[in-house]
């Protein structure tokens, strides 16, 4: 697992998401301010709805910008058995049935998935329930989430 390459993929995915959200926000803004969408009566809410949508898209855009900045500034750390799992490390968890799940502890962008098939790596943050449990853990430690018990089998 090449962590610098994985971080580069996360940044690329976030840049793509930012581009999509920015265009959507611009489109919603244009709809909200278009002359033909000026309300003619109290039931004519198209302009208002577009305004709410533009506001939401702008907030999402700010969140993605923050995640991009955090990942660009991220210092990659090698696993240190003294400290246990830390931000920027890729962990592999194995459940009781032998199913493996690979995660990267990132500063932001929780839920983002990179890769396909068995090579999928999901970003979680230390603020998530699983991230909170993983911080400081060591290989062979167990974590439990939603009645599923996972064993930490690898940290990169």
UniProtKB/TrEMBL annotation:
Any one Gene Ontology molecular-function term assigned to this protein's record: translation elongation factor activity
Every Transcription elongation factor GreA/GreB C-terminal domain range: 83-148
Gene3D superfamilies given in the database record: Transcription elongation factor, GreA/GreB, C-terminal domain
Full protein name: Transcription elongation factor GreAB
Annotated Pfam families: GreA_GreB (PF01272)
Keywords noted in UniProt: Elongation factor, Protein biosynthesis
